[in-house]
Model the fold of this input.
Amino acid sequence: MHRNEVVLAGRLSMEPAHRELPSGALLTQWRLAVRRPGGRSGHQRSDAIECATLDDVVRGMLTGWQLDDLVEVEGALRRRWWRGGSRYEIEVRTARRVEAAVPRGKPRRRRPHADDGTAAETGQADHEDAVADAGATEQAASGGEASSGASGHEAKPGSLPAGSSDGQAVGPPATSSRGHRDEAVVAEPPAG
Done:
């Protein structure tokens, strides 16, 4: 039996963008930053995953989404061929916003999540780390070209240096005021 089903939950790192194809169909694309389960090293890593739809019903589900919203999508993994090569993306059949983004500057209270034990214990991990990590992964995947703010986040201390493709942290893990190790990625700012 063959099966191709994907369910993702992550932070919106690129707002939905619409593009008309030569066929006249309207393609809507967006990107999610999805955290990986914690590894042995204690560093949190994320993947930037492209999502797309041609479906008007799904496009309507995206209405009102903003950067950093926590969203869930269901669909299938597809390989798309373009003139310049190919890439993988999720062809979305259904989508929903799980949690709206918290405006910058306001503290956010985290609820315990089964896959995020350290953040639930310490309250120190932040979704921006997942978005920053995914942005570095995107940059490395695009040959080192910056995405000119497509994710809406600028490089900051704590983000990965340009060209870091495996998401490994450069610096030591952060420690909270309670002495717990933070799962956030900590790195030195890029040189020059």
